Amino acid sequence: MIEKGAEIAPAKGKLGVLCVGMGAVTTTFIAGVEAIKKDLAKPIGSLTQMATIRLGKRTDGRSPLIKDFVPLADLNDIVFGTWDIFAENAYEAAMHAGVLEKELLVQLKPQLSKIKPMAAVFDQNYVKRLHGTHVKTGANKMELAEQLMQDIADFKRKNKCARLVMVWCGSTEVFIKEQPVHKTLASFEKALRENHKAIAPSMIYAYAALKSGVPFANGAPNLTVDIPALLDLANKNGLPVCGKDFKTGQTWMKTMLAPGLKARMLGLHGWYSTNILGNRDGEVLDDPGSFKTKEESKLSVLEYILQPQVYPELYDNFSHLVRINYYPPRGDNKEGWDNIDIFGWLGYPMQIKIDFLCRDSILAAPIVLDLALFMDLAQRSGMRGIQEWLSFYFKSPMCAPSLYPEHDLFIQLMKLKNTLRHLRGEELITHLGLEYYD
Length: 438
Ligand SMILES: NC(=O)c1ccc[n+]([C@@H]2O[C@H](COP(=O)([O-])OP(=O)(O)OC[C@H]3O[C@@H](n4cnc5c(N)ncnc54)[C@H](O)[C@@H]3O)[C@@H](O)[C@H]2O)c1
Prior knowledge:
This protein is an alpha/beta fold and 438 residues long. Helix content is 38%, strand content 16%. Bound molecules: nicotinamide-adenine-dinucleotide.
C-alpha cells in the first residue's frame, strides 16, 4: 500500500497520451484539449481541470483546485499519439465523427492534421462490423506486440516525452471470458507466440504498454488488462492499470439514482433502459458479440448497488433490461430512455421516467483527460496494479479479485478524493462532523 504523504515525482517534461482507436471519443478528447489550450473553450466535465477538494474542517476554508493540490501534467505538456485501422488524420477523423462543429475543427486544423494514426493491430474476428486497411502484419501475435513496442519507443523518442500513458478508446471487442492461457505471464506469452484465439488485439496493446513501462487504462468493456497475467506484469513492472468501460450516459444516471432509491429503502420492480445511437460505436455494438460485452458491463451495476441478497423484500428478482439500437440519423447524439418501476410505503407502485438527450463523446472526452492525468500521477506516486480509486470513471470498475466492485458514484467520488488527500498527507474526510457541536 502506498504510504500517506509519500513522495510524488514532479510532472516535469512532456506527457505522451497514446490513444488506441481514433474515433469519436479520441478526436473529441484531442480537439477539446487543443481548443482549451487556445482558450476557445472550457474543460467542462473534467475534475482534474475544474473540481476543488476540501481539506481539513468545513470551517477552515481550504478548498484548492485538484490541479493545484496534486502535481498533474499541464495541458500544454501533453502530446498525442494514436493507432487506428483507418489512416485518416485527427482532423479528418474528427470531421468524420461529426461530434464537434466544423467551425471549431477548422480553427484547430493545423494541430489536428499533424496527428496521424500508427498502423493498428486488428483482427476482424474480434470486431465484426469493421474492415480496416491501416493494419500491421506479422507472423504471430508476439511479433505484433513487438511492433507496438517499437511504435511506443519511437513515439517517445521523436516527441521527446518524459512519460507516457495509454488509454484504450478503440471499438468494443466480442465477449471473451477469462481462460487458462490468461492465468500466468508465461502462458500468455506462449499464447501470443502460438496465435491463440483467446488473445484479443486489445490485450496485445495492453501487453506492449506494460512491457514498455506505460500505464494502461481501458475505456471499453473488453476483458483486455483484467486478466491475472497482465495484472502480474503491471505489478512486477510497478505500473498502474484501470478500467473498464467509461461511465458516461445511462449507466452514470443509474449509479446516481440507484443509491438514492436504496438510501430511502424504496423497492424496485424493474428498470428498462433503451438507447438509440447512430455513430460508429453504435454500428459496432449492433453486432451481438460486441453488444454482449457491453451488456454485461451495463447490467452489473444495479445488482451491486441494490444488494438484493441483503434486501430481498425490496430488490429480489427485479427485471433489468438494456437495449442499444443502431439508428444512424442520430449520429453521436444518443437518446437514452429509462423506465423505472419502483414501490414505496405499503408496496404502492410508482414510476420514474428519464429521457436523456446526451452526446456520447462530449461526456466521454473529459474522462479520457482525467484518466490520462491521474494515471500519470499514480505512476509518479509509485502506485501499481489496479487503481480502484478511479472506479468513478468506469461502468465495470476493476478491483481486487477478493472484492466486489463499488458502483455508487458518490462513494466512488469520496474514494477518489480521499486517495488524493492520502497522497498529499492530508486528513481523510469522513463527514462525521460531531466536532462542530462540542
Ligand atoms: N460515451 C462514450 O462514447 C463511451 C462510453 C463508454 C465506452 N465507450 C467505448 O469507447 C470506445 C470508443 O468509442 P467511440 O465512440 O470513439 O467509437 P468509434 O467507433 O468512433 O471509435 C473507435 C475507433 O477504434 C478503432 N479501432 C477498432 N479496433 C481497433 C484496434 N484494434 N486498433 C486500433 N484502432 C481500433 C476504430 O477504427 C474506430 O476508429 C468504444 O469501445 C466504446 O464502446 C464509449
